[in-house]
Amino acid sequence: MLTILSVILPIFALILVGFICRRTNKLGEKAASEINAMVVWLCLPALLFKVTATTTWQEIWHPGFIVAFSAGMLLMFVAIVAWRLRRGHGLVAASIDGLSAGYANTGYIGIPLCALLFGHVGLQPALIASLLVVCVLFAISLVLIEIGLQEETQLGKAVLVVLKALGKHPLVLSPLAGAAWAATGLGLAEPVMRFLDLLAAATTPCALISLGLFLGQKAEKGSESAWPLVLVKLVGQPLVTWVLAFKVFVLPPMWAASAVLLAALPTGTGPFMLAEFYQREAGLISRTILVSTLGSLLTLTALILLLDLSHVAA
Known about the structure:
Layout: H1 2-23, H2 31-54, H3 57-60, H4 63-86, H5 91-102, H6 106-118, H7 123-149, H8 155-168, H9 170-184, H10 190-201, H11 203-217, H12 227-248, H13 253-263, H14 270-277, H15 283-307
Helix pairs in contact: 1-6, 1-11, 1-15, 2-9, 2-10, 2-11, 2-14, 4-5, 4-7, 4-12, 4-13, 5-7, 5-12, 5-14, 6-7, 6-13, 7-8, 12-13, 12-15
């Protein structure tokens, strides 16, 4: 519990800072949207470019782990999107909700947690999971959102509209540009790396402060419960991943345990950033992040005890 608290408490502190700044009017009504726009257009693209530009195939090619983690993540996403659509929600809202159910906070919680539990070797599965969440799940969500936003009735025109929108999106262009750079075999110069590091380091704190600002200015009564998304994220996703990691692929102990723990992480700020960026209702998403982060104190502790990590080499 102390290990998890040391990782999660700073998250609440950053959200609280944003909340207090908004309630005391130290930051104005547009601050949440403006800070979020900075994250979407500058900080997160820098992070995505840096990660994809400096990662080799040898580091990320672990097929069993990739399939086990991806399957749990994508199954939860598809299930929530289908459920929301059946309840009459539009594709944009359904996609953002689905993202909330599958988007694990691998960057801010997963990486330090795996490092604490497994040592330096734990960074590798955490990095792979981060790439899958941000570059695969995020990309699928963006495609569905853009499809939901376009109003063209002819298929050809609709496809062109979606491709044009995606072609301008910083969260699509940055990882593609990073992968293209990595394919050249050229490294990144020290000043460039330092520049990217400075921007990338601001991603999580700015996103969490933006979330706190949003919570400080909008109080919703009688709005939809976050519990279905939270239960899918904290229970459904790790359960599916556990079956695949331990029973189907029989991964090595560290890889199997890390796959389950990473799948059990609470919802990250990615869905909230998209909801704000596309000017969609972000109340449900913000509550999902808060409730799942708080609930993960219990679920992650239970999983660590259940997995008995004492025999896993750190």
